Amino acid sequence: MKDLFEKSSLSIIGLGKNTGKTSFLNELLEEARIHAKDKILAITSIGRDGEEKDLVTNSKKPRIYVYEGTLVATSTELLGRCDITMEILDVLPLYSALGRIVLLRALSDGFVEIAGPSRKKDLALLESTVRRIEPQAVFLVDGALSRMSFATSTESTVLCTGVNISRNPQKVLEKTVDAVYGLTMKKTRRWLPMEKWRAFIYNGEWEKIEGNLAMELGKEIIDKFTEKTEAVFLKGAVTDSLLAKLLSEASFRSVELILEDPTKLLVSHEKLEKLNLRKITVTAEQTVSVERILFNPYETSGLEIPSEELMELIGKETALPVVSLKDLQRRRRNDEA
Fold it and tell me: What pLDDT, in 10s, does the model give residues 209-238?
């Protein structure tokens, strides 16, 4: 994992609960302590992380253990739950549900709980504050399940998946491959309109599309769709209901469908297959660079599910390196021995 420390920033995305996001963050912190001692790590979370129990399911969660020198961005209400000696570096004009965001430096090793900003522009301000203090820091963002768009703000991303996504291995494969397909879509080469509008269509020039709801928006796009149409640019979420309306028109094919960013594509496996059959190219204004896939083979009970074949299939379908959380933890124990 040493190559990850050459990145300026890294986001960790989970496809669901218990996919190993926080465990992977701990492995990165431990890896840096052993093999990248010259690197300063700065960590935060889009949601809340590091608590002993999940606040929704009440299941046990891995805590976050940091080492002396680590920068931590968390909320004021969680400072008392951080078991470290700390130096407050800055109190930012940013807020989470748990109070104002504070940037601190760990002066000792210990457990921390983190809750950072939830908006992309706030995350950018936090990173710029980190850079002012430690210009060469590796900025690590532990992401929330429902807010994957923050990944467009970081240089690279690790996607976390695993057996807790579904009891059906085929479903785990499909969901993981679909997520990679969505996240790694190409960046559009077209000039895009800057107006704050939900949708545009390109018939020689960009034209605004009226409507906001999926059905009315889909109808307006179809009404303006011609043989000369080259592209459709959609801002906001692209859902099954919107695509169903567009795909109901047989002539809707062989065009470029442009999104704001890959995380806005919220559609089923079946709809993705139909897009491919219609030769509709999906691109984005902003893109995400997925570095590798982490696979968690452990159920929430701690039981390990044999997953070597599934991991191999995921690697083959995505052309990305797939690493098992089990292998990372075993390698660390060997390093410590």
Answer: 988 777 789 999 999 999 999 999 999 889
Query: Which residues 6+ apart lie within 8 Å of 215 measured at CB?
Result: 241, 245
Distances in whole angstroms, Cα of residue 17 to Cα of each of 14, 60, 279, 296: 7, 12, 34, 11
Please write the tens of the pLDDT for every residue from 306-334.
999 999 999 999 999 999 999 998 887 77
- Run of H or E including 309: helix 308-318
DSSP letter, residue 76:
G
β-sheet with 256-259: strand ranges across: 186-187, 281-284, 256-259, 231-234, 199-202, 206-209
| Encoded amino acid at 210, one letter | E
Q: What angle do CA 16, 22, 24 make, to 5 degrees?
A: 100
Distances (CA, A) of 266 to 98, 149, 299: 29, 12, 26
Q: Are 218 and 252 in contact (CB under 8 A)?
A: no
Residues 6+ apart with CB under 8 A from 233: 192, 193, 199, 200, 201, 202, 206, 258
Angle (CA) 198-204-207 rounded to 5° is 25
At residue 175, φ and ψ (nearest 5 deg) are: -65, -40
* Dist CA 135 CA 152 (whole Å): 20
Domains of the chain: 2-184+289-336 (3.40.50), 186-284 (3.40.140)
Angle at 70 between CA 100 and CA 292, to 5 degrees: 100
